[in-house]
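Example record for the data management plan.
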Amino acid sequence: MTTVLVCPSCKRHQLSLHLKSNLDSLQEANELSFSSRKRNEGRFPNFFQCSLCEIAVSELSISQSFIAQYEDALYSSPKEEAMAANSYWRLFKSDIAALSSKSSFLEIGCGAGFFIHKLLKHNFLHVLGLEPSSDALRSASAEVQPYVRHGNFPESLGDKESFDAVFIFQTLEHLRNPREVLEDVYSRLKSPGFLFVVAHDYLSWQNQMLGEKSPIYDIQHFQLFSQKGLKAIHEAAGFAVIKQGRIWNTYPLSYWLSLLPSQFPKSSVPKLIQKLPISLSVGNQYLVAKKS
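Corresponding structural encoding:
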């Protein structure tokens, strides 16, 4: 039976070509291809768009061989992940502070656990991170190790494990069935429970300006969301979206340079300047949703 692409939110088959692939072969991947915050490789498959939900779907989202490669992905970005955790903490700290110190938290796709460390540091001790990359988990600090678990959601959870809040940062794009995952998250949340999400916005002016040169068009992204699309898929999963907006990220200049097309002369920027932390709004978005 032939597997066909569908919109992950509304499940419609009527998708139109959004971006034509520049790959010679769908096997053009290596251990770094599925690494978070890697340099811009400039390689992407066909992306098809649902005009109703404004979600762009990669043809690789139906490829089991590509999905399996996340477990073998190399981890190469501890400094950038730590800075991302700082950005997300600043963004959500007032919402998190309103929750009880006895609240239970889950992070799906926790990397080396830098955001988990933030929660522990602020005396939230009922925390768990799930991460499919073994290499990322080996990089977790000794303090964080007891609170992270190798595996995927929800397969790596016990039947009775439930949570007051769930965090999904730059991970929805990497999931084969994001609506089904969100429905599982909904079922695992206590009532009231909260979901905190960060994702790319492929229809932001920054990404539209860059077009196919944008680093978000990549073989590791199985779908990309607009603001409308991100809200639509959460509502389809049963959530009430309570706020949504743009996010500013802070990274060293060297990281921002790595995302630029390969033609850009990065070596012309002095090394000392490349170490400077720079805050930019580069077309990422956040969403907070609630289970009533």
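Summary line stored alongside the record: Residues 78-97 form the longest helix (20 residues).
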